[in-house]
């Protein structure tokens, strides 16, 4: 796979290798589903009351190759709120507007080692910057979206929809619930404002962040969004390019450092892929040059990551050779 020319004038490679034959991928996706469907560990999020009543039996998987081939199992087309899986794509839109250097200078890129909504991450940082994959950094990201006032929401909604390859819609019930109970995030927004780290009014920044989190998606949508990052910014469904390959690099980097919150180091150690989770039960992983994986299952572990989503990601990373750090061939030579 190739993207736009690099500084040297050469066409940069997105990655190397390829997935096994489609029938093999189909089999392994279904195998991952069957192995994890009986798991009863974890519980739905209690962060917002609207999420607490989720059906714990819902479970869907979609792996989408960069050529658009989809491999699905279970409830892959059941809709749920995207929550924090929106964060990489909002950051991508900010990078598109400001450039990767300015985006990192304004928002940060290092892991916090704290829970996803920890306000103290701002206080412990020497300059208030955190990471766009945790709530304070994501609120900062939303504030720097292009436009003024409601124009920012139009830019954000249009951009996230472009990644998904279809028009996304807001879950009004969850949005109302989140807006009424997001007291911790409100504290983070005003603390960022006091540090001079927001690109707009703190109430607007918080509202943009909350609204983006309440867009409805499916596991299939997450796979499309991940595959877009895997193919250097080209959406495999629409053929459109929301961002350039250079911006994909920046997005995947922050996903590696903090996409799975305080478990990001363990995730990289075991799975070896850029990933992002959301407290509604979504998990999205990216295998550059190969494809994107979307999983939906509401029960979460103590860090706020989908339990079944983690199991599926670990299994498929090993079985399909998706681990970026693995130098062992998928099929050993005889």
What keywords describe this structure?
Beta-lactamase, disordered N terminus, 8 strands, 334 residues, 2 domains, five-stranded antiparallel sheet, alpha+beta, three-stranded antiparallel sheet, 14 helices
Characterize the structure shown.
The protein is an alpha+beta fold. It folds into two domains: 22-84 and 215-319, Beta-lactamase (3-Layer(aba) Sandwich); 86-213, DD-peptidase/beta-lactamase superfamily (Beta-lactamase, 3-Layer(aba) Sandwich). Helices cover 44% and strands 10% of the residues. The chain has a five-stranded antiparallel beta sheet with strand order 2-1-8-7-6. Strands 3-5-4 form a three-stranded antiparallel beta sheet. The longest helix is centred in the first third of the chain and has 15 residues, at 22-36. The two termini are 29 Å apart.
What's the layout of helices and strands?
Blueprint: H1 22-36, H2 49-52, E1 60-65, E2 70-74, E3 80-81, H3 87-98, H4 100-107, H5 120-124, H6 135-143, H7 150-164, E4 169-170, H8 172-181, H9 183-194, H10 202-213, E5 215-217, H11 219-230, H12 245-258, H13 264-270, E6 275-277, E7 282-287, E8 291-296, H14 307-319
Antiparallel strand pairs: 1-2, 1-8, 3-5, 4-5, 6-7, 7-8
Helix pairs in contact: 1-14, 3-4, 3-12, 6-9, 6-10, 9-10
């Amino acid at each position: 796979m190739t993207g736009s020319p690099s500084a040297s004038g050469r066409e940069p490679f997105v990655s190397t290798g390829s997935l096994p034959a489609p029938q093999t991928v189909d089999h392994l996706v279904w195998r991952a589903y069957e192995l994890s469907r009986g798991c009863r560990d974890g519980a739905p999020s209690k962060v917002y009351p609207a999420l607490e009543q989720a059906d714990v039996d819902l479970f869907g998987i979609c792996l989408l190759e960069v050529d658009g081939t989809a491999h699905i199992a279970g409830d892959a087309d059941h809709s749920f709120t995207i929550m924090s899986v929106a964060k990489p794509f909002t950051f991508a839109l900010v990078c598109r507007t400001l450039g990767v250097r300015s985006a990192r200078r304004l928002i940060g890129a290092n892991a916090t080692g704290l829970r996803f909504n920890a306000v103290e991450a701002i206080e412990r940082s020497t300059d208030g910057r955190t990471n766009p994959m945790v709530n304070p950094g994501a609120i900062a990201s939303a504030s720097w979206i292009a436009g003024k006032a409601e124009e920012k929401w139009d830019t954000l909604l249009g951009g996230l929809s472009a990644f998904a390859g279809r028009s996304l819609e807001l879950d009004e019930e969850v949005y109302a619930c989140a807006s009424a109970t997001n007291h911790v995030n409100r504290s983070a927004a005003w603390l960022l404002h006091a540090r001079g780290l927001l690109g707009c009014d703190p109430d607007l920044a918080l509202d943009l962040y909350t609204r983006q989190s309440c867009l409805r998606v499916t596991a299939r949508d997450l796979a499309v969004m991940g595959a877009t990052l895997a193919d250097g910014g080209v959406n495999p469904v629409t053929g459109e390019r929301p961002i350039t390959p250079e911006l994909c690099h920046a997005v995947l980097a922050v996903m590696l450092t903090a996409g799975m919150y305080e478990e990001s180091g363990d995730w990289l150690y075991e799975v070896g892929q850029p990933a992002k989770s959301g407290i509604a039960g979504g998990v999205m992983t990216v295998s550059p040059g190969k494809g994107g994986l979307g999983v939906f299952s509401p029960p979460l572990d103590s860090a706020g990551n989908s339990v079944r989503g983690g199991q599926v990601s670990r299994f498929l990373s090993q079985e399909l050779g998706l681990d970026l750090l693995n130098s062992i061939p998928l099929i050993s030579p005889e």
